Amino acid sequence: MLSVGKWRKYCIYLKIKPKVMSVSLYSHPDMLLSEHLMSVMKIALKNYDECRISKPKLLDEEALREVIKFSALFHDIAKATPYFQKKLKNPAELNAEEKDLSEHSLLSAVVCYLLLEKVLKNSGCKDEKDTVFYTVLAFLIVKNHHSYLSDILDDLSSIDDEKVETFKKQLSAVDEKDFSDLLKVLNQSIGFQLKLEDIKKSIEEIESKIRKAKRIIRKIIKTQAEKEDMSIYFKINFLFSLLIDADKSNAAGIDHKRSVVDITEDIIIKYKTKKGFKENPINQMRNQAFNEIISCDIPEDKRIFSINLPTGLGKTLSALALAFKLRNRIANKTSVCPRIIYSLPYLSIIDQNAAVLEEVLTTSGIETTTDVLLKHHYLAPEIYKGTKEELTEDEAAILIENWSSEIIITTFVQLLQETLISSRNKGLKKFHKLSNSVIIMDEPQVIPYKYWHLIEKVFVEGLELLNSYLIVLTATEPKMFEKKDVFYLVEPKKYFKSLDRVVIKPRLDEKMTLEEFINEIVIDKSKRYLLIFNTIGSAKKGYDLLKERLIRKGIYCEDSVGEEVLFLSTHVVPKQRRERIKKLQDKKVRFCVTTQLVEAGVDINFDIVYRDIAPLDSINQAAGRCNRHGNKEKGVLYVVELTDEEGRGFYRNIYSKIQIESTKEILSKHRNIEETVFLTIINEYYEELDKRKSNDESKEILEAIYKLKYDGEEGYSISSFRLIEESNSINVFIELDEKAREIWQKFLNLKKIKNVFERRKEFKKIKAEFYDYVISLRYPDKADLPPLVEGFGYVNYEQLEDYYDKSTGYNTADVLIF
Q1: pLDDT in tens, 182-239
Q2: Is residue 485 scored above 70 in pLDDT?
């Protein structure tokens, strides 16, 4: 609680007159309601104005500033009721009716609607349609500021006779003196003298106003859908993001001031020089591509840039150099310094790329505190270290979740599913950070092709509205964007034609069982082998068969075979996966049996690779793990078709029929495919896929965006968008070692903490270590799973052999292994 003296200082900070303070009304246990409302307004407007400096098209209407000001200033106004105040102080004493009357979001939204309408009309907004549009935006974001965004018409329909009577009860119970004191503070910012009686009178008209608003909004939505216009979707998400970010930040006691760090593309050059990469043909090509990219004249009318280079040619460093170059060009032109958001498909490569970037920055003396470089995914530790001080867990969580850093490395799920195409409160908190940003998407071809049309449309319009840029990195250049929208930074043909590191040898004349396949492998003691399977089950069986063969042939004895054959899949706990990938990178293992998790971006290198039939872009990625650095002897990638005992291909549960048929059709024309023609055949594959693929699901979600259908039980909605298909799944904690046992005990001890918020805070301290021992299992309806303890499947150390193999991970009986 603030003393009078502190309140006066605080008012000076907010630039308002400290005439009065309402000492009886609170928004949170230790925060005055007046303090909270004024602070949220200040933070939201500060962030809004920062975004507007470069004048993105999204924010070209002055009325939007009024929307965010009033939304922030009145988002919690209904917390002034005695019912909410009682809920805050003595929640256990509330009866059923009082619990209902203590709810604050809907009444706050209605008050905000009515007051903003008055302000807009008085400010000369003559068009009734515009007035309704802006007031409905404010209503929508305030109503949902503690929940997900929902269908806009459903939200308006929630106002009925019963709700109006509830509003009257809530307002009639408000203490007039306390509320008057509160309004004296707020009135300094709204431009007129508001009284409680004004609000009570206005409530009488809300039903008729909402009915009229619904008619107008239906027409606006219809027009937007006909024009295929996303601008209202982006406005809603942007304003919602500003409000909930400011609200949560203030509740946690944060008013973050960004510390912009001077970073130029020269730091990449400095890093490359310090590393002293050897002079060889591959490094010469890497340098050639890098120089071509950073010396390129970047056109001002393009927002999407493509770096299409063969695997292993340094796309990451080139993209970072380009991002820094773009960042500085925009900063010099607009005085806004863009954030860089680097997104990747898999968790397994985030740590690898983050380590490279950290080394790049430290080479130039830039301290990699969290306000400079942030790794953000669900397993990342919630620790935020700025240059000045370490923050509390709550403060750290807020700054991490709203991307308060200069460079963010994250996943496609966080960027696309949780933020760009989303209705989720937690994810949308960072939506406004997408404005004035440079976004890097590494290996976008792994996005399900049914969503390519959706991704294209959202980025093409969104980048323009948000004044942002996209850099696409790929070795395969999927047909995700139309050529007219993309600026190509390199000519890929000359690089592909200059390479001769690997040859692809399709062996698809006959299908093979796993036993036939393993027995057919010709083993050369001087070579290292990578075997990539389509399913976890087939990989495990392949691993067992390979070990048996190596022992049977006397190539290795039983004691040493485990040292030489390594297994990787998502059924192996993350701690072991990281350790094993490090072994592979250090070339300490001769045979690796794995699923496709190594294909996109994992920096490993083998002489011979075998790949079960997969889409051609996946095969191309597998080839990138073969003779990656261009040794004299050419690497070989064999493509085979593996089946179960009944002759069914293992690919059937992983990839679509269209992808496999298109791939087979192209591969059947070749006995050997040299690296010089990789680009030609991958383009042929995408042409074929483009002819056959359906855009139906993309169009359904686009329709939901145009119609602002955030959620709904019938048909597609914005919340329908999922990069990873949902299924029956369970997270299982594997008590693999003594460290795991200690962490599990700490987890169980959390039950003793009665306060749910304190319990969550304590869990965050062990979250990263805890999830090092957690795997996610998909399972059929009737499955023999480990016992459920506190929401997790639990395999204790004594049961380990029953459920978990230290070599191959979780035993696959009764779980889905694809």
Answers
A1: 999 998 888 788 899 999 999 999 999 999 999 999 999 999 999 999 999 999 999 9
A2: yes
Over the stretch 356-390, which tens digit does the pLDDT of each residue have? 999 999 999 998 888 888 888 765 555 555 655 55
Residue 397, H or E segment: helix 393-401
Longest dimension (CA), the chain: 92
Closest among 336, 342, 340, 339 to 316, alpha carbons compared: 342
Residue 400 token pair: 């991490």
Closest to 320 measured CA to CA, from 271, 385, 285:
271
* Continuous segment of H or E residues that includes residue 164: helix 161-172
Looking at the predicted structure, is the pLDDT value of residue 245 above 50?
yes
Burial state string for 785-803 with b = 16 or more CB within 10 A and e = fewer than 16 = ebeeeeebbbbbeeebeeb
Rounded Cα–Cα distance for residues 397 and 382 (Å):
6
Cα–Cα nearest to 462, from 328, 329, 304: 304
Residue 380, φ and ψ in degrees, nearest 5: -70, 140
Q: Rounded CA gap, 592 and 611, in Å?
A: 12
User: Side chain identity at 734, as an amino acid letter?
Assistant: I
Task: Please compute Rg for the chain using Cα positions.
Answer: 29
Contacts of 192 (CB under 8 A, 6+ apart): 118, 119, 122
Instruction: Say which residues have a Cβ less than 8 Å from residue 257's Cβ, sequence separation at least 6.
Output: none
Q: CB neighbours of 92 closer than 8 A, spacing ≥ 6?
A: none
Enter the tokens of residue 411. 């996943």
Q: Give the Cα-Cα-Cα angle 546, 550, 552 (nearest 5 degrees).
A: 110
Q: What is d(CA 667, CA 432) in angstroms, rounded to the nearest whole number? A: 45
Element (H, E) at 307: strand 304-308
What pLDDT, in 10s, does the model give residues 385-418?
565 555 666 677 788 788 889 999 999 999 999 9
Give, as one character, the DSSP assignment of residue 413: I
Burial code of 50-73, b = ≥16 C-beta within 10 A, e = fewer? Answer: ebbebebebbeeebbebbbbbbbb
Helix (H/G/I), strand (E/B), else coil: 813: coil
Contact 196, 179 (CB under 8 A): yes
CA distance 513 to 649: 9
Per-position b or e across 214-223, b if 16+ CB within 10 A of its CB:
bebbeebbee
CB-CB contact of 92 with 186 (8 Å): no
Secondary structure (DSSP) of 692-757: H---HHHHHHHHHHHTT----SSS--GGG--SS---SEEEEEE--SHHHHHHHHHHHHGGG--SHH
Task: Name residue 733's beta-bridge partners.
Answer: 774, 794
Tokens standing for residue 393? 């867990």
Task: Answer whether 420's CB lies under 8 Å from 233's CB.
Answer: no
Which residue do the tokens 């982006």 mark? Answer: 234
- Spatial contact of 404 and 437, defined as CB atoms under 8 Å apart: no
Q: Give, as one character, the DSSP assignment of residue 68.
A: H
DSSP SS3 for 182: helix
- The pair of structure tokens assigned to 562 is 């485990």
With b for 16 or more beta-carbon neighbours within 10 A and e for fewer, the 514-528 pattern comes to beebbeebeeeeeeb
Taking each helix axis as running N to C, give the angle between helix 105-122 and helix 63-74, from 0 to 180 degrees, rounded to the nearest 10.
140
Return d(Cα 762, Cα 531) in angstroms, integer: 42
pLDDT tens digits for 71-95?
A: 999 999 999 999 999 999 988 888 9
For the chain, the distance separating the N- and C-terminal CA atoms, rounded to the nearest angstrom, is 55
- Consecutive H or E run containing 502: strand 502-513
Q: Which alpha helices (H) appear in 486-568, and where do they start and end?
A: 492-497, 514-520, 536-552, 558-564
